[in-house]
Amino acid sequence: MLDPSKTDPSAAMRARARALAKAGGVEQALAAGALPKLVETTLSEALVLGLMKQGVRKYFAIFGHGSTDLGEVLRIYEEEGATRTINCRNEVEMAHAATALRWQYGETSAVVTSIGPGAMQAFAGSLAAASNGVGVYHIYGDETTFGEGYNMQQVPKEEQGLFGRMTAVLGQSYVLHTPEGLRDALRRGALCVNHPYRAGPFFLLLPLNTQPARVTVNLAALPTKPALPKLVPADDAALEEAADLIAKAQKVAIKAGGGTRTHDSAIRRLAEAAGAAVVLSPGSTGVLPDAHAQNMHVGGSKGSISGNHAMAEAELLIVIGSRAVCQADCSGIGYKNAKAVININGDLADALHYNNTTALVGDISAVAERLAAKLESAKANANKRAWLEACAAKKKEWADYKRTRFECPPLQDKVWGRPVLAQPAAIKIVADFAKQIGAAKFFDAGDVQANGFQIVEDDRTGDTFTESGASYMGFAVSALLGSAHVANPRYNIAFTGDGSFMMNPQVLIDAVEHGVRGMIVILDNRRMAAITGLQLAQYNREFRTNDRVAVDYVQLAGAVKGVKAVFGGDDAAALRAALTAAQAYPGLCVVHVPVYSGPDERGGLGAWGQWNVGNWCADVQGEWIRQDL
Question: What are the structural domains of the chain?
Answer without folding.
Answer: 32-221 (3.40.50.970), 237-396 (3.40.50.1220), 415-597 (3.40.50.970)
